Fold:
Amino acid sequence: MRSVRRATVAAALLLAGLFGIAAAQESVPPPKQEWSFGGVFGTYDLAAAQRGFQIYSEVCSNCHSMRLMYYRDLSGIGLNEAQIKAVAASVQVPVGLNDQGEPVNGPGTPASRFKSPFPNDLAARAANNGALPPDLSLIVNAREGGADYVYGILTGYQDPPENFKLQEGMNYNEYFPGHQIAMPRPLQDGQVEFAGGAPNATADEAHDVVTFLAWTSNPELVERKQMGIRAVLFLTLMTGLTYAVKRKIWAEVH
Amino acid sequence: MAGLYKSDYENPVIRWIDTRLPIFSLMQKEYGTFPTPRNFNYFWNFGALALVTLVIMMATGIFLAMNYSPNTGLAFDSVQRIMRDVNYGWLLRYTHQNGASMFFMVVYIHIFRGFYYGSYKYPRELLWMIGVVILLLMMATAFMGYVLPWGQMSYWGATVITNLFSAIPVIGQTVVTWLWGGFSVDNPTLNRFFSLHYLLPFVLFGVVFLHVVALHITGSNNPLGIEVKTPQDTLPFHPYYTIKDSVGLCVFLIVFAVFVFFVPHTLGDPNNFIPANPLQTPADIVPEWYFLPFYAILRSVPNKLGGVTLMFASILVLFVLPWLDTSPVRSARFRPLYRPFIFVLVLSLFALGAVGAHKPEGLWVVLGRVCTAYYFLHFLVILPVLGVLERPLPLPESISRPVLGPPGGGGPMPAGAAAKPMEKS
Ligand code: HEM
Structure:
């Protein structure tokens, strides 16, 4: 009996040890940041998300597409109808055929998808040293570490260590797996000027654009969490009530 | 009144139906007055919870299917359309996605209950075997469902798992081509998986019905593992267990809601947010958590055919469990040796889960092999031998005795009380 129990404990310790070893081997995890959308009551900081959209438009959209986003979606970060129309109209998109049967372009509408910088993946690779800039619509969900990781990538550019062999056209990044990333450092201090004069050091810009990207990845987040709070409260109440009834019904049995 | 059933119902409409089709009498008999052991603990909630989860999966699945496109060019975007543009589509999708995990969690606990209290023993062998069929059908359904959103893990998971069949000697490759409907996982594969993913839950529902029919013939087991002897040992199912199941259901729904509303991605893989790309293999191909122990068993053997055989054997062995366990005593409460062994088995399954989540390197390989060996050792050697060597504790006279008797004799509480008789040994 005893020995069996002791064996169980030993096995548990062995397991714990193995997890420890595995954890130690993994690459540098990006540091945790404070996000407006974190936690049970989190919501998006809309001002930050709007600045993030500006950064995306001015910087990232030169290389990265956002296939899943439509201009109409921007109402989700507080743009009004006129603003959305103006943003959409600033790009040229295919609008159908003329009476000669030729495809024509025209200004975008709120129903247009975000315009992609390249017509296809091959063109995107050709313009980026052979590397494909991934679509950013879901990027925060599509990486281990989520928002912290994307923030880590944007702020993690450094000079490579002494004996690190950096390939031609690659850049050293602290948090990218393998540390060699094809994307040149996209954000610099003061690169994007915000209307209200909001701070624009690299870290601020990264923070804002990641807020925007978190929103494009999970546009339902605020509605979801608010519904969740109500659901859990309701169910907790129901649990209490049901348990009270159960106690009452079972009282005669014991 | 030749040909009509004798109904006790007063209400003329109900009576009219019941005399012709006695479903009201049937429900009353099977879920109203049905005599149920009075000493269930909360482990006995999980069957009802599994049924509720199955219904939730079917309900959300049918609405998802209204907006889903089973075509390799459209599938990923159609799921994202559900998430972004369909009213409450995110709720349907997150419920369905996390519901699969909840389903397995509930069913695994349900199975553990069976292990612990010996529910698979005479006369419930067939009931147990139908349960194993349910487990297999669930696995097939969940595997094919996971392919539908057509993300990277969908595609590569499908490729790895279907490729297992190529281990079959001689006809293996032909079988795989036949499964795929082509020469790789592609549009025909996605189409048939969608069709089968829609079908299998309904088959599952039918098998669950048989499971319940078999249960209502033998009656339920209970934490003491002794048979019902007198009417004092039982309570009518309603209201005693309808209300007790409702308590469990509320708690379960809280857990479910926390996953759906607050951490819907925790159980998933980030790679599945990347559309399937046959030209780019992800760094790690990892199945969903509920398959990890079996994946670890698969990879514990360096030979493909050996691994596949062991993986299937790990579930098939459950079919013969009623005959491998030679002890006449059901409940682990009265089996001082079996009880610790069942916990070691659970521990080794958790360890196998961890092994399945890691690259098969270094210590993980060793751990995977040791735990796989232990898994089979448990069923094939330990159980048959234990039944002979073990001296079970004296069994209580009847269910009503210990329940009515002084504290420490069991009762509708989790297994804590069972520790007492054990320490005496
Ligand atoms: C035994 C019950 C069921 C289980 C265990 C199950 C499991 C799953 C799983 C694991 C997924 C992948 C979720 C994801 O990662 O996105 C999925 C997707 C899906 N299932 Fe089911 N399912 C069940 C019943 C049904 C039923 C009855 C339908 C009705 C047609 C259905 C329709 C769908 C559809 C359309 C998808 C793709 C959309 C999506 O990925 O969210 N499912 N299922």
